[in-house]
Amino acid sequence: MAKKSLLRRAGVLAATLATSLLVSAQAAEPIKIGSFLSVTGPASFLGDPELKTLEMYVEKINEEGGVLGRPLELIHYDDVGNASNARNFAGRLIRSDRVDIIVGGSTTGATMAAVPLVEQARIPFISLAGAVTIVDPVKEWVFKVPQSDRMAAERILWDMRRRGFDKIGLISGTGGFGASGRQQTLAVASEYGIEVVADETYGPSDSDMTAQLTNIRNTDGVDAILNFGFGQGPAIVTKNYAALDINLPFYQSHGVASDAFLDLAGDAAEGLRLPASPILIPSSLPDDDPQREVVQSYAQEYRDHWGTRVSTFGGYAYDGLMLAVQAIEAAGSTDKAAVRDELENILGYVGVTGIFNMAPDDHNGLTPESFRILEVKDGDWMLVE
Amino acid sequence: MTVMIDVKGLDKEFGGVHAIEGLEFSVEQGQIYSVIGPNGAGKTTLFNLITGFYTPTRGEITLNGESVVGMDPNRLAERGMCRTFQQMQICMNMTALENVMLGRHLKIRSNLFTSMFRLPSLLREEKACRERSKELMAFVGCGEYINTEASAMSYGALKRLEIARALAADPKILLLDEPAAGLNGTETAELEELIRKVAEQGVTVMLVEHDMKLVMGISDRLLVINYGRKLAEGTPEEIRNNPDVIAAYLGG
Amino acid sequence: MFDRFLEWRMNYVLVLAIIVFVIPLLMENPFYFDLATQILIIAATVVGLNLLVGYAGQISLGHAGFYGMGAYFSAVATSAYNWPPLLALIVAAAVVGLVAWVVGRPILKLKGHYLSMATLAVGFIIAIIINNESQLTGGPDGMVVPPFSLFGWELSTFGLYSLLGLEIPGHVAWYLVAGVLLLVAVIIAQNLIDSPLGRALRSIHGSEIAARTVGVDTARYKSMVFVISAVYASIMGSVFAHFTGFITPAIAGFDYSIVLITMVVLGGMASPMGVILGAVVLKLLPQFLAGFQEYETAIFGFILMATMIFMPKGFYPTAMNAIRNKLGKSSGGKA
Amino acid sequence: MFSEFLQYLFTGITIGATYALVALGFTIIYNASHVINFAQGEFLMIGGMGTVAFMGLGIPMFFAIILAVLLACLVGIALQRLAIAPAKNADVVTLIIITIGASIFIRGIAQVVWGKDYHVVPPFSGDEPIRLGGAVLNSQSLWVLGIGAVLVIALILFFTRTLIGRAILGTSMNKLAAQLVGVKTQMVLMLAFGLSALLGSVAGVTVAPITFTAYDIGILLALKGFVAAAMGGLGSGLGAVVGGILLGVVEAMTAGYISSEYKDAVAFSMILLVLFFMPRGLFGGRTVERV
């Protein structure tokens, strides 16, 4: 990492030099980074920090001289969490704006809607969405930043196994994230010797999940409860869970890995566990943690720039952008096939989300271990290890 | 003469209030039969019962010997019954001619398939329908409105248009609810002439009307009702001399 | 000559055809074709919905349910069961028609807001089923749909085709197919409207009481037009699924039903050109508003509200009236 | 077994009380103007988000609530004056689209002014749940039920005992007649919208501690409220309350005993069933077709 950034600084220096020598460098054609995100609508808590991150770092990179001596230009559309909009905007980015690479797609639905276009147009696409279907089966031009929901399920089940639970109750949202997470959990549970004995769902705008939780509580032999979902739903589940006084270990997914969740759930969240990026605990990362530096600087810069706390989701956009920049630099041009090949070759990139090791059969490049198991203690996240 | 409409023991209650009570009468084919009575006597309710818009609480209505109680208006139309309304029911989203052509709805055999592809059989049928409707518009005296939007027509013309539409169905019995309401003297005279012409063609006409001059001049028989009950029935002459009727109208 | 053109009931179809087929000569960018094709598909859908809402005067707040059903039937049948797309499209239309008939009979007895409520409920139930049966439909994340093909000949937006010696890129080919579909949809709809059947439908809107007295079996006609508009939606839903290659349950959802009915009302009820214009505007508006960022929602709502307040009949009839008045004045009040 | 049932019932009544309050808002406006106001949910949103925003300015909760309710009333009156009144002769569908447009507009503004995050409104009386017969009841649920009951009684008294209330009812029955006896119908309509907004925003702030609040919370609440109002019979206050509670209980029971995935589908099937047999809802007036 240190070497890489040194290289980049050298590049920046060269670029700055070039600028001062050649006035024409001013006319250097920008590298177009296309993006469609759910900045408004039900998934705005994903898209909003993602866009803020992209805007901020594109600006920052340009101040430092851009990439390959060319400035970055961010072209962004808001898909409002609607997949057909996402598809249309992806089409617009590819065919009208003629961008060089796409970093975006806050939700799995939005990402998957754009995939057929991206594949046919043969343009590198780095998705910021979660479901494993995005990269399994591998699609030639599609990469993704976040750990898949399958990894989240695996990580949670691993921790459950470690604590000796073998029967769990599952409650999940019926939105894309929850439904896919539920499927993955059911699929991999047996590998960890865990049985899902209760399986409940709730709608995206439900205001009370007591009935579902009562059902789970009344199921025989439940050792722990897992909630897969995002938005305000999991916070309501958490509150209902506390109100029902269910004294079972409680797990949430990485879908709620943001401070906003703690604000909503309040005391009720006390003691629950979830898998998350280290971004939630920048200051309590051990000194020897390889991600410590990048996580802390991103968290600091984001807070300084926007005046709000970071979330995991903004971190995805950070990694997405940096992966794109790195691949373009390595390719030495914006040639789409070359950039794609370089994306596939990325090894050991230390990001906010984890350490990425891409491969032809792995367009995500993360392992379940990149998730840290956190526990809520005294209203804050705490690393369990 | 055959009996067209036969009403026996007819009752209609609205929330316990008797709108029509124990009404009995019959209308013979080809007659002009009028129903009169003070406001709120139940005349329009009676029409709504006969034409299927209301279902009687009790009693029997037969049309040409067939019981028609509980039958929908469109089923009654298939049996040759047609009517106009006190509060006119004109399709204001159509032209005058289309309103009359609508009246021939039951005469038309075209189906979804012929309509979708506008097959020749449909065009032939439409042409015939249009011709007949134009004739009827001329017959009722609104020939000049053929291409006019219904919403642009005067009240009097619309009244006649509604009759033309009813006639377009080639009805056996025609019920007119206050056709003269809102018309001036000349228009009323024209209307009287029109009703006579219709009756001459063998159509039975039932009439609810307030214009006594019109009613007395035109009707073969009259039914007088008050508070939903029969007060009198008979020829115009008999009604004119009936003390109950005089009392109801003058002193009641 | 010109007068006869003005009198001709299909005059606007000719105008529409010219517009549809001239546009490709003016556009280069495949993205615009992509958008235009979607507009044509959705326009054909609302032409069908207009028969129900504009002409027969029956509200449906659940029509996207039928659209989504058609789309998903085609998607599942062609991907999971390898049906030929055309067969899937036809069977989907038949199934959707049947469903519409079964639910339509009891629902259409309801009036006004109760009818809106019932259609909304039907749409919701369809959307919930699509959302939950994820083994078949892929659930909320959506599913991939194979491209349209006929006798082994595949229509893809990225293909290249030759017709009469002309090289036609896939996106233009799709556009032309959708354009022809829209014209067929409009011609059939106009034929229906101009038939006795159409007259009966319009009479239900004008005066249901009058319709019944002249013998129109209003219940039968209402369910017939409900089925016809549902079949329109189903067919165009199938076409849309093959065109975009990926669908999510959102296309069957309440929001989309509202979009459809808004297209009908915004452009001008009971006017095919009006509803097509409604589709064009509502589909293009988000593209234009994309630059307004966070103000997009507010501006969209404002435009919607203001248009309906100041042009309650929709903007096509309002504009036509204005033009007619102007022409009338300039020709010395001849009209 | 019984405690389970009791739990579902409590849950259902809590959710149902929310629906009932939204449905009552529909009812007031429907009664005065025969308009279904699809922007009704936005009043709830303004109630909740307004309270959060005013509290953010350091205003004590009680006054923040009052300010939020006032704000909602202003929006309600503005809605009637600026959007509904100019379109008074429009079709039913056109009015539906206008109110939907208004709802999108209000939501859009709220999103710009108040942001997109979900917020918590503190419960009125602590977080401690109440235990009863093995089941748990959120203390805020009691507030919802209590305030709901008070509002319903206040409304009944308002419509039957006060001159203005009777004027609203009179206007709904016969606009012309009401004008003839000197009722200023425009004034009455404005009042109805204001009142409905008041009801909506009070409901919004009361349920916010349970459901959280955000700029887009109004959409689905409005939808459920409409379902409840239609099921009970449009225009009937009793219908709105019964419809709301019934809807909530059916949802909770379905989630508990049948399938949580299909609980909304069951709720929607139920309204279809009700309408098949009672085309004007459970308590809708049986009017005779006037010919």
From TrEMBL, chain A:
In Swiss-Prot or TrEMBL terms, this protein is called Amino acid/amide ABC transporter substrate-binding protein, HAAT family
The similarity comment for this entry is:
Belongs to the leucine-binding protein family.
Q: Which PANTHER family match?
A: BLR7848 PROTEIN, LEUCINE-SPECIFIC-BINDING PROTEIN
Phylogenetic placement of the source organism: Bacteria, Pseudomonadati, Pseudomonadota, Gammaproteobacteria, Pseudomonadales
Protein's organism: Marinobacter segnicrescens
Instruction: Report the residue ranges that make up the Leucine-binding protein domain in this protein.
Output: 30-379
The Gene Ontology biological process terms listed for this entry are: amino acid transport
Highest rank taxon of the organism:
Bacteria
Q: Where is the signal peptide?
A: 1-27
Automatic annotation (TrEMBL), chain B:
Per the UniProt entry, what is one GO biological process? L-valine import across plasma membrane
GO CC terms, sorted:
plasma membrane
The protein's matches in CDD domains, at most eight in alphabetical order, are given as: ABC_Mj1267_LivG_branched
Q: Which PROSITE patterns match?
A: ABC_TRANSPORTER_2
GO function term, MF aspect, one: L-valine transmembrane transporter activity
Keywords of the record, alphabetical order, are:
ATP-binding, Nucleotide-binding, Transport
Q: Does the keyword Nucleotide-binding apply?
A: yes
UniProt domain ABC transporter: residue ranges? 5-252
Task: List, alphabetically, the InterPro entries matched.
Answer: AAA+_ATPase, ABC_AA/LPS_Transport, ABC_transporter-like_ATP-bd, BCA_ABC_TP_C, P-loop_NTPase
Instruction: Tell me the Gene3D superfamilies matching this sequence.
Output: P-loop containing nucleotide triphosphate hydrolases (3.40.50.300)
The name under which this protein is listed is Amino acid/amide ABC transporter ATP-binding protein 1, HAAT family (TC 3.A.1.4.-)
Organism from which the protein derives: Marinobacter segnicrescens
UniProtKB/TrEMBL annotation, chain C:
Q: Name one Pfam family in it.
A: BPD_transp_2
Localization per Swiss-Prot or TrEMBL = Cell inner membrane
The entry lists its GO molecular-function terms as:
branched-chain amino acid transmembrane transporter activity
Q: Which UniProt keywords apply?
A: Cell membrane, Membrane, Transmembrane, Transmembrane helix
Top-level taxon in the UniProt lineage: Bacteria
Topology of the protein relative to the lipid bilayer = Multi-pass membrane protein
**What GO terms fall under cellular component here?**
plasma membrane
Q: Which residues cross the membrane?
A: 12-33, 39-57, 87-107, 114-130, 150-166, 173-193, 224-246, 258-285, 297-316
Report the protein name in the record.
Amino acid/amide ABC transporter membrane protein 2, HAAT family
Cited PANTHER family = BRANCHED AMINO ACID TRANSPORT SYSTEM PERMEASE, HIGH-AFFINITY BRANCHED-CHAIN AMINO ACID TRANSPORT SYSTEM PERMEASE
Which organism does this sequence originate in? Marinobacter segnicrescens
From TrEMBL, chain D:
Membrane topology listed for this record:
Multi-pass membrane protein
Q: Where in the cell is it found?
A: Cell inner membrane
Can you supply a Gene Ontology BP term from the record?
A: amino acid transport
Pfam families in the record: BPD_transp_2
Kindly list the GO CC terms recorded for this protein.
plasma membrane
Do you know which InterPro entries this protein is assigned to?
Answer: ABC_transp_permease, BCAA_transport_permease
A molecular function annotated in GO for this UniProt entry is:
transmembrane transporter activity
Highest taxon listed in the record's lineage: Bacteria
* Residue ranges of the TM segments: 6-28, 61-80, 92-114, 142-164, 185-206, 238-259, 265-283
Q: Which UniProt keywords apply?
A: Amino-acid transport, Cell membrane, Membrane, Transmembrane, Transmembrane helix, Transport
Protein family (similarity comment): Belongs to the binding-protein-dependent transport system permease family. LivHM subfamily.
Q: What is this protein called?
A: Amino acid/amide ABC transporter membrane protein 1, HAAT family
Tell me which species this is from. Marinobacter segnicrescens
